[in-house]
Design brief:
The structure holds 2 protein chains of 2 kinds. Chain A is mostly beta strands. Helices cover 0% and strands 49% of the residues of chain A. Chain A has no helices and 11 strands. Chain A is globular, with a radius of gyration of 13 Å. Chain B is an all-beta fold. In chain B, 0% of the residues lie in helices and 57% in strands. In chain B, the strands form 2 sheets. In chain B, strands 2, 4, 5, 9, 10 and 11 form a 6-stranded mixed sheet that branches. Chain B is globular. The termini of chain B are far apart. Classes of the chains: A mainly beta, B mainly beta.
């Protein structure tokens, strides 16, 4: 079955450490997105990519980095520069140029100790 | 003003009730509209797209009012399993398609 796989599902990190969240899709989608969700808030866009080797900052990119070396993969690194990284992180994808359904992975819950 | 606004609720309704949510958006050039459902600590899942002519899927009806810039979701004959947060999503195009999420409306259906 096609879908988006995020890993790990739960991650604990000490302050000052970088962590990388994995996102892999086999839907053959061109566009991929990373969102952050905090309690009581809507999803906020961190980074997005419409094509391999290209990505754009979203609304809250500071303290995060991404890469898009393969169509299927869009990993997110939460760096030590991110002041409040504890959150629920969601990866999503959709076909470029198609304002249709945004497909989500199951999410990664990051807790900074 | 937020780009997409929803009443956070919670809306507490008895089983079998009809409940309606509204969502307003600020950008008149918005293109596509969706309702997503999100269960606690899970990812959002598409409930339905919203078309200009309105659309219905079983107990769920979605409508779009471009003149007043809002979309609505009506749930008839509420079930316990309808308890969730309902997210309004709007897309705009500014070089790329951008999905903008409301904060969600929480629904609790009570036995």
């Amino acid at each position: 079955d096609g879908g988006i796989t995020q890993s790990p599902k739960y991650l604990f990190r000490k302050e000052g450490q970088n962590v990388t969240l994995s996102c892999e899709q086999n839907l053959n989608h061109d566009a991929m997105y990373w969102y952050r969700q905090d309690p009581g808030q809507g999803l906020r866009l961190i980074y997005y990519s419409q094509i391999v080797n290209d990505f754009q900052k979203g609304d809250i990119a500071e303290g995060y980095s991404v890469s898009r070396e393969k169509k299927e993969s869009f990993p997110l690194t939460v760096t030590s520069a991110q002041k409040n990284p504890t959150a629920f992180y969601l990866c999503a994808s959709t076909k470029t140029g198609y304002t249709g359904e945004l497909f989500f992975g199951e999410g990664s819950r990051l807790t900074v100790l | 003003r937020k780009e997409v606004e929803q009443d956070p609720g919670p809306f507490n309704v008895p089983e079998g009730a009809t409940v309606a949510f509204n969502c307003t958006y600020s950008n008149s050039a918005s293109q596509s509209f969706f309702w997503y459902r999100q269960d606690c600590r899970k990812e959002p899942k598409l409930l339905m797209s919203v078309y200009s002519s309105g659309n219905e899927d079983g107990r769920f009806t979605a409508q779009l009012n471009r003149a007043s810039q809002y979309i609505s979701l009506l749930i008839r004959d509420s079930k316990l399993s309808d308890s969730a947060t309902y997210l309004c999503v709007v897309t705009t195009t500014s070089g790329t398609y951008k999905y903008i999420f409301g904060t969600g409306t929480r629904l609790k259906v009570l036995a």
